[in-house]
Amino acid sequence: MAVTDQTEAEAGRIAAAFAQAIALGAAQEGATAPNPAVGCVLLDAQGAVLVAAAHLGAGQPHAEARAIAMARAAGVEAAIHTAVVTLEPCNHTGRTGPCSEALLATPVRVVWYALPDPNLPAAGGADRLRAAGLAVHELAELLHPARDELLARARRLLAPFASRVQRGRPFVTVKQALNAQGSMIPPAGQKTFTSAASLLLAHQLRRRADAILTGSGTVLADSPSFTVRHLPDIAGKIRHLSLLDRRGRIPPAYLDQARANGFIPHIETDLTQALHALAALGCNEVLIEAGPALTQALRDLGLWDEWVLIQQTAAGDTVTTTRNL
Fold first, then answer.
1. Which residues of 119-132 are buried (b: 16+ CB within 10 A; e: fewer)?
2. Rounded Cα–Cα distance for residues 14 and 145 (Å)
3. What is the DSSP string of 135-168?
4. CA 183, 292, 277, 170 torsion-angle sign
5. DSSP string, 75-102
6. CA-to-CA distance for 273 and 199, rounded, in angstroms?
7. Distance CA 56, CA 251 (A)
8. pTM, rounded to two decimals
9. 238: exposed, middle or buried (C-beta count within 10 Å: 0-12, 13-18, 19+)?
10. 293: three-class secondary structure by DSSP
11. 8, 47 contact by CB (below 8 A)
12. What positions carry a catalytic annotation?
């Protein structure tokens, strides 16, 4: 299908496949580092969905390869005509083989991908597929009203991985809660003042993060565990805990407890260096859960990508998410 020849029905099926692929990838956020979260949908020549899959984690098949394996297991590989994937198929051999070659081993004739691979050593899959005679298109070429929304969702899905490989630092999400008076400090004897729904959101943010970063003041004031509660955590997930402590105030007992809670703790003295160190360890996204001073420093330095503000009001909590992409 040439891009200029898209019918409304064809464009609608591709848009629906992109929406499904992005949702599948998003469901794996936090589980795939140092790899990106990616979803793939395989269609037949009439645009019907044959199979859909996501990449589940480093060392496991990429989304395209997993979808192809599922199609083979279901006996529908011969019907594969179009592949819709959230990221350009890779063209290199790492822990797994190139997705470009995996696709070429099927009858696929058309490939749509949302975004080019930001990891240059793995890029080039689109050119490889075109050289083999396939029709290859980017989501930006889709003639459909949902295109821009789908692109925005695909960019957010890829953003943590892209930040690490392009900028050498993780995608930084700041979670900030303010009470009705504009203070971040909970009442005496409490560790939070937010609602149950806001607390669930905070733990959802923890779940998708590969690391937590905080300051020594937060540790000394609250001795937070930073564990994921209120919803199931990712099985086998081990997170890094970056602790800014210029004066060596964090007690060894806290570090021991962090290890017991499944973290790998690191003492750092410089914020920028701490972020680069986490990227070097393969962290795609870091969640900032810190006090006013460190939170303001991140804002002043512009070292943030997503700011989740939970504001307590008389009518209940409001949540505002701002992106600095």
1. beebbbbbebbeee
2. 12
3. EEEEGGG--STTHHHHHHHHHHHHHHHHHHHHHS
4. positive
5. T-GGG--EEEEEEPPP-S-SSS--HHHH
6. 30
7. 37
8. 0.92
9. exposed
10. helix
11. no
12. 64
Q: Strand 318-323 and strand 306-311: pairing?
A: antiparallel
Q: Please give the structure tokens belonging to residue 121.
A: 């050593």
CA dihedral (198, 201, 207, 209) positive or negative: negative
Q: Is the Cβ–Cβ distance between 243 and 215 less than 8 Å?
A: yes
Pairing of strands 263-268, 239-244: parallel
Contact 42, 67 (CB under 8 A): yes
Query: What is the C-alpha radius of gyration for the chain, rounded to an integer number of angstroms?
Result: 22
Would you write out the chain's pLDDT as a tens digit for each of its 325 residues?
456 678 999 999 999 999 999 999 999 999 999 999 999 999 999 999 999 999 999 999 999 999 999 999 999 999 999 999 999 999 987 777 799 999 999 999 999 999 999 998 878 999 999 999 999 999 999 999 999 999 999 999 999 999 999 999 999 999 998 876 666 666 555 566 567 888 899 999 999 999 999 999 999 999 999 999 999 999 999 999 999 999 999 999 999 999 999 999 999 999 999 999 999 999 999 999 999 999 999 999 999 999 999 888 767 788 889 998 7
Neighbours of 170 (CB within 10 A): 30
CA distance between the termini of the chain: 33
Contacts (Cβ under 8 Å, ≥6 apart) of 71: 42, 50, 51, 77, 79, 80, 106
Q: What counts of helices (H) and strands (E) characterise the chain? A: 10, 12
